[in-house]
Amino acid sequence: MKKLTIAIDTLGGDLGPAAVVEGAEMALQQFPFLEPVLFGDEEVLRPLLKKDMKIIHAPTVIDPGESPTLAFRRKKDSSIVVGLKYVKEGHALGFVSAGSTGALLTGATVLIGRRPGIERPALGTVLPSKTGHTLLLDCGANMDSKPSYLAQFALLGTEYMQKCMGMTTPRVGLINVGLEEEKGNTLTKEAYALLKETSGINFVGNIEGRDILAGGVDVVVCDGFTGNVLLKHTEGFAKIILGMIKEQLLSTTISKIGALLAKGAFGKLKKRFDYREVGGAPFLGLNHIVIKAHGSSDALAIKNAIRQCVEYAGQ
Amino acid sequence: MKKLTIAIDTLGGDLGPAAVVEGAEMALQQFPFLEPVLFGDEEVLRPLLKKDMKIIHAPTVIDPGESPTLAFRRKKDSSIVVGLKYVKEGHALGFVSAGSTGALLTGATVLIGRRPGIERPALGTVLPSKTGHTLLLDCGANMDSKPSYLAQFALLGTEYMQKCMGMTTPRVGLINVGLEEEKGNTLTKEAYALLKETSGINFVGNIEGRDILAGGVDVVVCDGFTGNVLLKHTEGFAKIILGMIKEQLLSTTISKIGALLAKGAFGKLKKRFDYREVGGAPFLGLNHIVIKAHGSSDALAIKNAIRQCVEYAGQ
User: Fold this and answer.
1) Contact B301/B294 with Cβ under 8 angstroms?
2) Size of interface A-B (CB pairs under 8 A)
């Protein structure tokens, strides 16, 4: 069986290399044809391994606070730089990292390079919708976007949902302030016209804020500013609502008993919003896929981020 | 005691003139110095009145689907046109309407006119935050905004929260993708610089999506596109989460019993998200305040929209 090599950054995650190694081992169990290559401190990694895996020594970590451009010049032996170069040179089909988003985005764009026809790569996020999953992109790679970027995001998102979610013709929506074609700002008006003409996508039109997660679309495109604000707001708001519910439930004895009886129901809901089940954020539009795993990824989250790479890169 | 006159549109709301009249009567009970003036069909209104109120006959309604510009030219006897003119001529200090948002925004800008120093009026929305309330503006009046608009929104929002929420120095945040000054798109970078220099506001810096409703700021400013998408997403997402909770709670007998016991707790939460308690969306930056009440406003919602006008216009 042909091996599928994925490069994995063991540094930069909040839980340290042990969680990443465990995640890689879980992925290996699920995909026997997978060949994980670990980037990090060999001395730390070697004792953690239960299965035989290739290690490439790259012991330096890029901190989230560092300027990505400076870090790239100075930290030539960082796991992100060495790992991305490894992918660029064709030794692996994808890269997974729970490290600094800025460094990863800058590094991937510079080192791996854009796919032909793609002006700007985009950061996607798969969100749980009412009926399934919706891919939101761009979530923050391109602050000021041009209409052509949004049309390319639609193509990239379509391909991702086909490969990783098994959809045949994902529905693409443009985030806007109204359903009518003439609604919106300069960007969305021009993007609408372009999306209508773009072949290879199933463009269903504008989608308003309230319908993004209602299940009517599979891919929603927007500029990176709007996407980033929306994504973070969604995370924050979910936490606030669930916190308010908890507070209310604990406010009286009767409702406390009620909460106890309903615990199983809340558990299921929590799982639905568990980012670890979905995996990481795909960085799309490069010559190879790069997955940004959540900073606090545990083994399960890392395993699912590797799974995304396998599904995207595999045949 | 000096009378405070507010113009009230009785047409365009989903529940018809009866709900508006009842709301006006409730407001009158709370504010004996209030002088409500009702705009609508006199024949319909007269029999609804329990208290004596002034009625100005303006029987035509502008539909949400109509082009605001066309409607303004054609429907000279519509409640919105006649009511706004009444305010413009100085007979009333504010206008409340549950009618078409587009017509109201266009009409108010054209007829009532902008305040000196304000380039563009903004539509605000008061959202429940973790600790109190946050005013989000612009929620959709200005699709493509300039940095100077955002600085003016900050001033308008500050004044609103002082007058209507009794705050002395409301904290103002700029919606952005990171906390650092250099983050964001072209608009927010320039707006940050301008907000720092704007006197009369308590600018606390950038605010990320996740913190908009966390309670750390009282006024958040952004362009009308971002604000509209965010606002509608918040409404839609709250509904989706609460729907998912309901579904899970009803899925087993045990959790059903739990839900029943916890009903009071959920009721309190629902009240917290009840737009009727907050009132309508203030349209700020004009020579007089205009409140856009929710289309499905009942008497309580109308009463609170009138209360906003009274608080803003009163001394």
Assistant:
1) yes
2) 193
